[in-house]
From TrEMBL:
Signal peptide: none annotated. This is N-formimino-L-glutamate deiminase. It comes from Bradyrhizobium cosmicum. NCBIfam families: hutF, PRK09229.1-2, PRK09229.1-4, PRK09229.1-5. GO terms for cellular component: cytosol.
Amino acid sequence: MTRLHFASALLPSGWANDVQVVITAGAIAEVTPGVAPAAGDERHGVALPGLASLHSHAFQRGMAGLAELRGDSTDTFWTWRETMYRFALAMTPDDVTAVATLLYVEMLEQGFTRVGEFHYLHHDRDGSHYADIGEMAARIAQAAEASSIALTLLPSFYAHGSFGGAAPHDGQRRFICSVDQFAELMSASRKAIASLSGANLGIAPHSLRAVTPDELAAIIPLADGGPVHIHAAEQVKEVEDCLTWSGRRPVQWLLEHVPLDRRWCLIHATHTTDEEVAAFAKTGAVAGLCPITEASLGDGIFPAREFLAAEGGFGIGTDSNVLVGAADELRQLEYGQRLKHRQRNVLSGGAGRSTGRTLFDHALAGAARALAQPTVGLMPGARADIVTLDISHPSLAGRSRDAVIDGWIFAAGSGVIDCVWAGGEKVVEGGRHRLRQAARERFNASVRRLVA
């Protein structure tokens, strides 16, 4: 049993002072506000529930910053993708373990306590299957276990190079599965995470570019009631190609052909019409927004103001992991809206409301829904995923309650997160994950070889 005492903590009911939290077997057993610290309580200042990165491609952390040299032609998502293919084709299972482990360490240091790993790097470098088709899924599970981050594994079904069942690109050979092979992969993935505390399994049809309607219908039951994630309408070219193929835009096609509900998460959904936004919000499906990656790749800006006005729910993801930080994603989300609408505090939700708090609450609730976590937050029965902030940081000086969150997201930069508990285990102290140095050394060794 662990007893923690916080001078201030954000509970589901709102902020409370002098909060004692009792942790048993990795879960929160008791939350008692308004009590003085008892002997044996570990004392801290401000506590928040940990957030989730609901969309990550872990292997791409290894190539962060390597696609910033402009070529002869216009540089777009599609040219970036060629760099990604080359990097993916070079990685060994050991490289994937090393890169994912450091990524998950960095996530925990930055306030993420769960990751939704949209995992599509399945096979050997020549496209052949490993003896265990779940080899790469097992490597992701190893990284999650080593770092102690909670894992929602989302094996991705990827069969085609474009709409209408087009043959896959050679650079995609490590991603490709038939429906029968993917069923084997799902079974192997379930086995890979079986021993992980707090882990669960969903499914990720990669996109309408990569999956035919018949394949989509065939693989959804493999989720066995778990979450379903799909990339949708990330790029204008994707929308145009979908119109050519089906006469429908990607989100429009999904709304008309699949039973979108609270199990579903549409990743990006950047290029959506007003009608699509309203209909999407009504389904209860979550918008999986990755503002830093969307900016990095020149995707565009999701209509978040309109989506929230329609009572849609969103979570945030780190996607390509070019920069890892919960505050960074939330700040970029709001700043994108400010640039688009030429206003301030666009997503605050109304006069007198804290933008940081509104963003935080949406990100917590949206990711919980998208990753099938029925109980999250500082409450009994929830996994003990807790983040404390360093109240001596200059950007938090003199602040309390929602102003602390605003200071963290919009002013602090780095160095705000003090301690992090993941499943009741303190894995970050003084802003440093206990595995940081070893994880960096292993990552650096892999990436130096890959870059060379």
